[in-house]
Design goal:
The structure holds two protein chains of two kinds.
Chain A (H helix, E strand, L loop, with lengths): L1 H38 L19 H8 L10 H35 L2 H12 L6 H12 L4 H8 L14 H10 L1 H13 L3 H9 L4 H29 L3 H6 L7 H11 L3 H25 L4 H4 L2
Chain B lengths: L4 E10 L2 E11 L4 E5 L6 H9 L6 E6 L2 E2 L10 E4 L11 H5 L1 H5 L4 H14 L15 H13 L5 E5 L7 H18 L2 E6 L2 H7 L2 E6 L2 E7 H6 L4 H6 L4 E10 L3 E6 L2 E6 L5 H4 L7 E6 L4 E3 L8 E13 L2 E8 L4 E7 L12 E6 L5 E4 L7
Parallel strand pairs in B: 3-8, 3-9, 6-7, 7-8
Antiparallel strand pairs in B: 1-2, 1-4, 4-5, 9-10, 11-12, 11-14, 12-13, 14-20, 15-19, 16-17, 16-19, 17-18
The chains are: A mainly alpha, B alpha+beta.
């Protein structure tokens, strides 16, 4: 610490400490602790808070698992189903995103000429200058029953009836994959870019097919980038709100929509907090498990 | 199995730029053949063409008599050792070596056995389970050689693989490479800008300049009977004297260089080329620094001139004397360190002499730029 002050001078050092301290304490620790605390408290009207009834309870977590006390079902099938569907869909989206980004990132990093590569990167970034909600609505316009795609296909005489892209959740999958595309693309691109091109040639010279070269040389090299991109896409997809609200079919419910309802429509912050904590916890555990499975360390991911 | 490699009129151009122009050479079966030239002379382009990473714009590559047009690098009987070796850092040493067998579907036991065999060949027994980064530079070099030899290529291509090593190790690896080549008996094609490497290892050398081959010959011939001013000045040190031919017969040429009359003998091999020299033609006469002696009664030879001593440089086994002639021509001569030259001082004029046998006369042309 003394060294840090000596090296950077008192003004810059103090600024750094305050900025980092504010970030960690006020933006990360306090809100999360408050949420955690809230999730264990009963939902009371403001007047009763801090009174005799305000004691720690597991009632919200119980509600998630077993439903309301008046329900006849053994478990809270509705919420559990939404929860696990959300996680499973997030996994599928992550895999889709990886499959989509890998060839593009590889092309930009290793095959394209310098100029083409730059143009491609710019054209990947520019659409993301538009707000996430607007992008979702744009996709809705494309995928709607009388939307651009259906109209084009019908007018071209390729089909007679419109496809229900939104009802079949095609729009949702497309929207979510696209929403966090760059978070997969850039870590992948970075790790692929650092691969020595001679390694590709060496593998080829030794007789390797393209697929085997990718499997044995490129993917192992890009593992950290894949893990980093996948973690971010998975976390953000599981926690997405705007895109599912705009693009999901009437039957598909995203877990964040549930949380949103508890907070805003039902005015039950405690339960909303409990559901948020659950989502965070399970997502983190899931990511840690995946990292263990693919033998990636946290240090490699943040590289 | 070993194969010969024939390049027939290979030209490679990128737009207007010719990386190789009309290169033809026949590399014999089992030969250690080097392409020697300064960076940018097209030697790497030639190697990439032989390995199949580059299709020639014109001409063809024949390996073992078979035309290689349209055959990719993974289907050619060649193996390439990259300048930076390009070992796979995430695989063990043994996996690196047996990668080409893995690709061809060999069993695990098979691969392991072959890897051990090759590790023994390159004197790395028992190091198969190590990671590449645990090895030293010289050991990595040997792993790269073993990996390239695993599929039993007919031709091994080497792209300056020693350039990253320090001097001592490089010298050691030269003789090791040569020994490995003798043991496996296949054709080695070696690319280098380091003439020391080319001359110590090769059976024959092709000296390249600006995409063309200037001369293909044995190491000794390239050094002693250069065919062009570029070869004469690129391979080893040389002193050029500009002048013109005053007389010529079948065995000797007389030239006049800045007022000095010199005589050069024409050896059997060069007779054909010497026919092209006409009286009055502009020429360059080359004499190696080690072929010039300080003149006294014992050493006097056919050719003499004098020059002023500028400086003396100590180079271990040699001492280099830098001189300037009256007409401003820079001359360098090397004397063995054993020779006593303590009495010499900068600024003094010295009488020098060299033999007509050691002088080479070539039509005027471009020298290699340092």
């Amino acid at each position: 610490m003394k060294n840090f002050f000596a090296k950077n001078g008192p003004i810059i050092s103090t600024y750094f400490l305050i900025a980092i301290g504010f970030w960690i304490i006020f933006l990360i620790i306090i809100p999360q602790l408050y949420m955690l605390d809230l999730s264990f408290r009963p939902n009371l009207p403001p007047l009763l808070r801090g009174g005799e009834e305000d004691v720690y309870t597991l009632t919200h977590y119980k509600h998630f698992l077993f439903g309301s006390e008046t329900s006849k079902d053994a478990y809270n099938y509705v919420d559990l189903k939404v929860f696990f569907t959300t996680l499973a869909t997030a996994v599928v989206i992550t895999v889709l995103s990886l499959c989509f980004c890998y060839p593009i990132a590889f092309y930009i990093a290793k095959i394209a000429e310098h100029k083409t590569a730059r143009l491609l990167i710019v054209s990947l970034i520019v659409p993301f200058w538009i707000n996430e909600l607007l992008r979702a609505f744009a996709l809705r316009i494309l995928f709607a029953g009388e939307g651009v795609i259906n109209n084009a296909l019908i007018n071209a005489g390729l089909m007679d009836n419109a496809i229900n892209f939104i009802g079949q959740d095609v729009a949702l999958f497309t929207g979510l994959t696209y929403a966090y595309l760059l978070l997969m693309m850039f870590p992948l691109y970075n790790s692929l870019e650092s691969l020595d091109t001679n390694q590709l040639e060496a593998a080829k010279d030794l007789g390797s097919s393209t697929i085997r070269t990718h499997w044995r040389v490129v993917i192992p090299h890009a593992k950290a980038g894949i893990a980093s991109g996948s973690t971010m896409v998975f976390m953000l997809t599981a926690g997405a709100l705007a895109t599912p609200v705009v693009l999901s079919s009437p039957n598909t419910f995203w877990f964040t929509q549930l949380i949103y309802q508890w907070f805003n429509m039902n005015d039950n912050w405690s339960r909303g907090a409990a559901y948020s904590v659950l989502l965070l916890l399970v997502s983190v555990i899931f990511v840690l498990l995946m990292m263990k499975l693919f033998r990636v360390k946290v240090g490699e991911i943040v590289k | 199995m070993s194969a010969d490699v024939e390049l027939q009129n290979i030209s490679i151009n990128f737009g207007d730029f010719y990386a190789a122009k009309d290169v033809s050479v026949m590399i014999k079966k089992g030969e250690f053949f080097s392409f020697l030239g300064p960076s940018g002379c097209g030697k790497t382009t030639i190697l990439r063409t032989i390995s199949g990473f580059l299709e020639p714009s014109q001409g063809q590559v024949l390996i073992g008599g078979a035309n290689m047009a349209g055959i990719g690098p993974n289907k050619r009987p060649t193996s390439l050792i990259f300048q930076n070796l390009a070992l796979f850092p995430l695989m063990s040493v043994a996996d690196n070596i047996s990668f080409s067998l893995e690709v061809r579907g060999h069993s695990k036991a098979d691969r392991r056995a072959r890897a051990e065999e090759l590790l023994e060949l390159v004197a790395l027994e028992g190091q198969g389970d190590k990671k590449v980064h645990e090895l030293s530079g010289g050991q990595r070099q040997r792993v790269a050689i073993a990996r390239a030899l695993a599929i039993e290529p007919e031709v091994l291509l080497l792209d300056e693989p020693l350039s990253a090593l320090d001097l001592k190790l490089r010298q050691k690896m030269r003789s090791e490479l040569r020994a490995i080549q003798k043991r496996v008996g296949i054709t080695f094609i070696y690319i280098t800008h380091d003439q020391g490497e080319a001359l110590t290892m090769s059976d024959r050398v092709a000296v390249m300049n600006e995409g063309r081959i200037e001369q293909v010959d044995t190491c000794q011939a390239v050094y002693e009977q250069p065919k062009t001013p570029f070869v004469a000045s690129f391979v080893g040190e040389n002193n050029p004297f500009y002048g013109e031919v005053t007389a010529r017969n079948d065995s000797r040429v007389e030239v006049l260089c800045d007022g000095n009359k010199f005589v050069a003998e024409i050896s059997g091999n060069d007779r054909q080329d010497a026919q092209n020299l006409a009286v009055g033609q502009k020429i360059i006469l080359f004499v190696r620094p080690e072929s010039i002696s300080i003149k006294n009664n014992k050493t006097e030879m056919q050719n003499s001139f004098s020059a002023q001593l500028d400086s003396i440089e100590f180079e271990g086994h040699l001492q280099n004397l830098f001189l300037t002639t009256a007409s401003g021509n820079k001359v360098r001569l090397s004397v063995p360190n054993a020779e006593d030259i303590d009495h010499l001082t900068a600024g003094q004029t010295m009488d020098l002499t060299f033999s007509a046998q050691k002088a080479v006369v070539l039509p005027e042309g471009n020298l290699a730029v340092d």
